[in-house]
Specification:
By secondary structure, the protein is mainly alpha-helical.
């Protein structure tokens, strides 16, 4: 195939002369013409000798050429473009066997591809967004190496607009492929997708191969296709592919051809391809698509409704387009009316249809491709609680072994029906796909099936949650026993230590909390109480979780149902703690602690009497009634001091630390220091039967208070050491809710010791940690940092420092 390109590279030389003549650099001309610098450089060097007419017109406009010079530049460019010759394919009736063999072995001469049966569908004039993905395809074309013809796979969940994007990209890139653009629907969602042999025949005929010259076998047809495309700059769009095996025979070998493949499957087994996995639109992009469909005036008049509509469509392009098409067909209809219709959760998929466009139908195509077990996994996964779920949850809900469910979850991801978490082994639904899965669940599963799935999952989750939480109890053996006494439903996969237990409890908290609710509703109250009791020590490490109020409130209700006054008193105290510490609802905390106190006195439970005094005092202090709080703590300390049990000693330590804090805040720092020294002495003496690790935490709390007592007495240098010990011990125990307030106290003391830079670093770290915890003292830390900046490092005597007294 001759190119007709002049040997002297006239186009590139002329372009370079024109550019330098007007004083432009390559970068400046490339920017003005909308081209890449590399592409412009290739033209000037003669590497790219025949740019398309649209490119030449852009260059002429950027160079401001007069019409005659522009025509000259276009003429030189045309000389470098491929000029395929026409050739008649042999007539089948007249061809001998030898001639047919020759026709099979030798590709026909290229021909003009202006008219063929596989022309591109029309582009959408309202196509929106996807610029980064389109830019990546442009880069593939600019760097196209015929030895490695690029194949781009466009994949993603149903409704993302994969075909629309590929068609738009094909139209955009068409000038780079003068030998034709061809699109073939492989019908991957049909019960019988197009066979590679049939697809090859259609491509070969569209490329000019006569019917009688098309070989019979698939491999021969694939070889002929590669031969035909060897010298052609063509673009192939293989739409709606089913599998890798369907696509492989259709790919060029050595060729300047670009192949675009769209599929709802990831086609992960397709080798050496460029992947474009389309994502959901951003909200502003979804609103822009809506604007292009119905016009800017309607969107401007109801801008909030347009944003709400984008949210209700889940930013899914197909859903947004359907909403737009419905509005476009009813020019007088308000956007807010459609928002109200879409907001009805149970009818949203019914509303998401416009003529032949239906979100439900798009999802159903993929669902129908699944085998029966995969469909069960998909449907039952909609029963999972929370924004995402693990393969274990999918296995429990579907009643499958974990290994099988994990495989099906991956298959559903490959089919675009689930979205994988980027780093964890977890999955999630798009909102509309969850609605679709729920519909299928209602249609195909009986209430008994669903009830059994929930019961099986809830029982397993509560057993695992209880066993994991027990790793944090004070009496837990440090070797992390893995025998049958652990209570875990699957000891082989149970969390091995506290870090793993914490990670599991956090990742699965929507699931085990929902299981707790359903278990209580089912009347299994002992399971509820036992789970909440196991959670008690773990809740201390995650006091920023607001869910603890619900956990302990449910335990109180179940204890009452069991007629267990002892359990009710314990969990009333836990609930008072949660209202104080997690929700900062001190009025409710006080009334709850008072209820616990009354019940404990009625039953003679002196340990719970002491704890109730403690939680009541904490609430009273926060309500601005510190003197009443101090009185409660004195009563609690006296009550517990008369007891001999180890649990009473632990409660006494807590009450002494709280009492000293209130005394310090009341301006009685010397009394506070005496109380906290007493608490530290009890820790040093130890408590029989309680592990050193636990007692060391109580001692760290006492030392934090001692440091703050010394700071309140302006004994700054003495305050540093106990505060450092407290921070280090809480950090080692991975208790941020305790370490970050102590770090703030340390930062205050360091500043008063005139160590400005160290103080700034410590206060900054404390502020960041307190923000993560949503701790009330984050405002105090921010105030100190601001004042430190304003004072240029010489902050002294601020209100925040004089109020030193963190818990």
């Amino acid at each position: 195939m001759g190119t007709g390109t002049p040997a002297d590279g006239a186009f590139g030389a002329r372009l370079r002369a024109l550019r330098t003549g007007v004083g432009l650099s390559q970068a400046e001309l490339a920017q003005s013409a909308g081209l890449s610098v590399r592409g412009l450089s290739d033209m000037e060097r003669g590497t790219s000798r025949g740019p398309q007419r649209r490119t030449v017109q852009a260059l002429s406009a950027a160079l401001r050429l007069d019409p005659a010079t522009a025509r000259e530049l276009e003429r030189l460019a045309s000389l470098g473009r491929p000029r395929p010759a026409r050739a008649e394919a042999p007539r089948p009736a007249a061809a001998s066997p030898a001639a047919r063999d020759a026709a099979t072995a030798q590709p026909p001469a290229p021909r003009e591809a202006a008219h063929h049966t596989l022309a591109l569908p029309r582009d959408l004039n309202d196509f929106t967004a996807r610029d980064p993905a389109l830019d990546r395809l442009r880069a593939l074309v600019e760097d196209l190496d015929p030895a490695r013809p690029p194949v781009a796979v466009v994949c993603g969940q149903p409704g993302l607009g994969k075909t629309s994007f590929a068609v738009h990209a094909a139209h955009t890139l068409a000038p780079h492929f003068p030998d034709g653009q061809f699109t073939l629907d492989l019908r991957g969602m049909d019960p019988c997708p197009v066979a590679p042999r049939d697809a090859l025949a259609r491509l070969l005929r569209a490329l000019g191969v006569a019917e009688g010259a098309v070989p019979a076998g698939t491999e021969d047809r694939a070889g002929l296709l590669r031969s035909v495309l060897r010298e052609r700059r063509a673009l192939l769009l293989l739409d709606n592919a089913a599998t890798e095996d369907q696509v492989r025979p259709l790919l060029p070998g050595h060729s300047p051809t670009l192949t675009l493949v769209t599929s709802r499957h990831t086609l992960a087994g397709l080798e050496a391809v460029h992947r474009t996995e389309l994502a959901l639109l951003r909200r502003e992009e979804a609103v822009e698509l809506l604007t292009r469909i119905i016009g800017p005036e309607r969107v401007r008049q109801e801008s909030q409704a347009a944003r709400d509509l984008a949210e209700l469509c889940g930013h899914l392009p197909l859903a947004v387009r359907i909403a737009g098409q419905r509005l476009a067909s009813c020019p007088g209809e308000r956007l807010a009316k459609l928002v109200d219709r879409f907001a009805a959760h149970e009818s949203r998929l019914d509303a998401l249809r416009a003529g032949s466009l239906q979100v439900r139908a798009a999802f159903a195509l993929s669902y129908q491709q699944l085998d029966p077990t995969a469909r069960t996994v998909f449907r039952r996964a909609a029963l999972a609680d929370g924004p995402d779920f693990s393969p274990r949850t999918a296995a429990l809900l579907a009643g499958l072994p974990l290994r099988h469910a994990a495989g099906y979850a991956q298959d559903l991801t490959d089919a675009g029906l689930l979205q994988p978490h980027p780093s964890a082994d977890r999955y999630r639904f798009h909102d509309l796909l969850r609605l679709f899965a729920t519909e299928q669940l209602d249609e195909e599963d009986t209430p008994a099936d669903i009830s059994l799935a929930h019961a099986r999952t809830d029982a397993w989750m509560l057993r695992r949650a209880t066993a994991a939480a027990r790793l944090f109890t004070i009496d837990h053996r440090p070797d992390g026993c893995r025998d049958d006494e652990s209570g875990d439903p699957d000891p082989a996969t149970a969390p091995a230590d506290r870090d793993q237990a914490h990670a599991w409890l956090e990742a699965e908290r929507p699931q085990w909390l929902a299981a707790l609710r359903r278990t209580q509703a089912a009347g299994r109250h002992r399971e509820v109480v036992d789970t909440a009791e196991a959670m008690h020590w773990f809740s201390d490490r995650t006091s920023h979780w607001e869910l603890w109020t619900e956990v302990f409130e449910r335990a109180v209700g179940s204890a009452r149902a069991l007629n267990s006054s002892r359990d009710e008193t314990v969990h009333l105290n836990y609930l008072a703690w949660a209202h104080n510490t997690c929700l900062h609802d001190h009025a409710t905390a006080l009334s709850t602690a008072q209820a616990a106190l009354a019940l404990a006195r009625e039953t003679g439970d002196q340990l719970q009497v002491g704890w109730a005094h403690n939680y009541a005092a904490l609430a009273l202090d926060r309500l601005g009634r510190p003197d009443e709080g101090i009185a409660h703590l004195h009563q609690g300390a006296d009550c517990l001091g008369r007891q001999t049990g180890a649990q009473s000693r632990l409660a006494e330590l807590s009450i002494l630390n709280a009492l000293g804090r209130l005394l310090r805040q009341a301006g009685r720092a010397d009394e506070a220091l005496t109380v906290h020294r007493r608490s530290e002495a009890l820790c040093r003496a130890g408590i029989p039967g309680k592990p050193h690790e636990l007692i060391d935490l109580y001692r760290a709390s006492a030392q934090q208070h001692i440091g703050n007592d010394l700071a309140a007495l302006h004994r700054w240098d003495e305050a540093e050491a106990p505060l450092r010990h407290a921070v280090a011990r809480f950090e080692a125990a991975r208790m941020p809710a305790w370490s970050e307030p102590a770090r703030l106290d340390l930062g205050i003391v360091l500043r008063r010791c005139h160590r400005a830079e160290e103080a700034r670093a410590t206060l900054t770290a404390a502020y960041e940690g307190l923000v993560r915890l949503n701790h009330p003292r984050q405002l105090e830390a921010a105030d100190l940092l601001r004042l430190l900046d304003e004072a240029g490092g010489s902050l002294t005597g601020t209100r925040s420092e004089r109020g030193t007294g963190g818990e």
